[in-house]
Amino acid sequence: MKSKKTIVATTAVAFALAGGGFAVGRETQKAITTANPNGNNAPVPNPSQNGSFPSFADLAARVSPAVVNVKVTSVEKAAFPDQFGQDFPSPGFQLPIPQQPKEFKRQGTGSGFIISKDGLILTNYHVIDNAQTITVTLSDKRQYKAKIVGRDPKTDLAVLKIEAKESLPTIALGDSSVLRVGDWVMAIGNPFGLTNTVTTGIVSAKGRTIGAGPYDNFIQTDAPINPGNSGGPLFNMAGEVVGINAAIFSQSGGNVGIGFAIPVNLVKNLLPQLETKGTVTRGWLGVSIQPVTAELARSFNLEQTEGALVGDVTADGPAQKAGIKRGDVIVSFDGNKVNDATALPMLVASAPVGKTVPVQVIRDGKMTTVNVETGKMNDQTAAVQTENNQSEWGLSLRNIRPEERRQMGLNANSGVVVTAVVPASPAADSGIQPGDVILQVNQVPVNSVEAVKQQAAKNTGDKPLLMLVRRADGSTMFAALSHNVG
Fold first, then answer.
1. So what's the architecture of 395-481 in CATH?
2. Which is catalytic among the residues 176, 230, 332, 425?
3. The CATH number of the domain covering residues in 42-81+101-279
4. What class does CATH assign to 283-386?
5. Per-residue pLDDT tens digits for 256-314
6. Any catalytic annotation for residue 126?
7. Are 393 and 427 in contact (CB under 8 A)?
8. Which residue among 38, 204, 301, 439 has its CA within the 20 to 30 Å range from the CA of 367?
9. pLDDT digit string (tens) for 363-373?
10. CA atoms of 437 and 424, how far apart (whole Å)
11. How do 287-291 and 308-313 pair as beta strands?
12. CB-based contacts of 310: which residues, under 8 Å, 6+ apart?
């Protein structure tokens, strides 16, 4: 039986030592003593006195004072059944029912770091979510009560503020865009409540999407982080923060060498709004997008699998008003290239509300530019919605009854309902589900099973069959299948 892959937010709730403590494994590192010839991420750690191993001691001593422990207390309601597992004792029982507490306190710990002399602290939103009290402890044991200045659940960021009469140590924010895969990085935090723990590693990858939200763009590192490291800084070798540690990949809850940090450039873009308004206002386009797979690219006669395919357009949204259509492939937004579907949400969200921006799309094989005035995203919408589907078929279809058409808001010439999908079939792989309604086949509207079969019969060679599918929630998406209607 395969174990589940799990992304774990790195906030520690409790830590206990049993017996006589714990053992820590040690691995030998190859000596690196030369400076980076490109001047990037310099200086490289100094060799230790014996000349064999790199030392991060000077760097850790310099930046550690500004890394803080964030302790959160929240109150949660509890509803316990009595000892018999019932809401009330059965008739005839006269035993006293123990009184259970209606509320209980929960404590959690995370990390953070000071970025200004007046006490601004950056951490993760999930560290302080539902907090009633927040206590910040510095490495020199000074403690302060903190208040929340700003929060942004969509990017898992929060800004805290403490008031201190004494001077506070601070850390500078760096530039995460110049990080390269293979660069040294250092993490400092409070794993399992063990304050100011220093770990090191390298940048394993950039631009990782882990399903945490619409703006995934994580730095992956093998610097060991664990529960309690959340909100702590990830440093380059110049002592600048390049990321905020936020999550780990783990099957056990502990570190396996795959950690994720929010790029600091994202933080710098949002920080002014979080400081002054407490929230983030984002641009809104009003489209549902999906990746351009190889099968979809062939179906739309595209030369490359770049861009974001528009699966649906929100009625009266900015995109519809500007003339963006379902089936367009967005390849550029406000002068920024859209390499894939994951790049577009951040570009749109970062655009000022009300700004008119040029959007390049490929439509019917030709490049065209439309000018879109970005709207304001509210809490119920996303800048763009993403549909992440694979491609390729195994369907059972039936005609839609008149009363069903009225309930679905479909006209008489629209749609065929999917009644079943064969597991592991091309249709299942493409994301089609029972209850979906097929609106088009090869961009031709269909209203009967026979019409679907006729269009499928016209598909020749190995070109995928392109379907426009309406989901149960009313949204639409494209699916490319290999051949075979069943």
1. Roll (2.30)
2. 230
3. 2.40.10.120
4. mainly beta
5. 889 999 999 999 989 999 999 998 888 889 888 888 888 888 888 888 889 999 988 88
6. yes
7. yes
8. 439
9. 988 999 999 99
10. 20
11. antiparallel
12. 287, 288, 289, 319, 324, 325, 326, 327, 328, 329, 330, 361
| Annotation says 350 is catalytic | no
- Tell me the per-residue pLDDT of 165-198, one tens digit each, with 9 for 90 and over: 888 999 999 999 999 999 999 999 999 889 899 9
Residues 6+ apart with CB under 8 A from 223: 185, 186, 187, 199, 200, 201, 202, 234, 259
Distance of CA 183 to the CA centre of its chain: 23
From the candidates 126, 152, 222, 482, which is the catalytic residue?
126
pLDDT of residue 311: 85
Cβ contacts of residue 380 below 8 Å, gap of 6+?
none
Structure tokens at 38: 């490109």
d(CA 144, CA 147): 10
Say whether 230 is catalytic: yes
The secondary structure of the chain in percent helix, strand, coil, rounded to multiples of 5, reads 15, 35, 50
Model confidence at 447, pLDDT cuts 50, 70, 90, reads confident
Domain boundaries, the chain: 42-81+101-279, 283-386, 395-481
The rounded distance, in Å, linking the Cα atoms of 254 and 230 is 13
